[in-house]
Amino acid sequence: MPDEAFIHIVRVDIDPEHEAAFNAWYEQTHFPDLLACPGWLSAKRFVSIGDGPKYAAMYEVAGRWAFETPEFLKVKGFGPFESLVKNFMRIQLRPMSGPA
Question: Helix, strand or coil for residue 69?
């Protein structure tokens, strides 16, 4: 399979006492840092209305190579919240066909 664009989804929980700070960090620091990295094309956050971890982030990534750049290696993870996130889940999805 060629190194093609795909969707990268991350889901996590965080204790309620850290939610406000976590959400501010995610929007004000983490997203800008990731989107400044080569190959990270878009980012959007969601909150669950069903089962599973409460928070989700969905990224469009240009290819697997984007996880290996020096820029990404400096900003990956949950920064000051690394030890506080729980129920981490990741899914990566590639399109089955071209644009509709």
Answer: coil
How much is the pTM?
0.89
Q: Which of 49, 54, 65, 60 is nearest to 93 (CA)?
A: 60
pLDDT tens figures, 54-64: 999 999 999 99
Tokens representing residue 14 in the block: 């965080």
**How would residue 1 be classed by pLDDT, with cut points 50, 70 and 90?**
very low
Whether the Cβ atoms of residue 4 and residue 63 lie closer than 8 Å to each other: yes
Distances (CA, A) of 88 to 9, 11, 37, 95: 11, 6, 22, 23
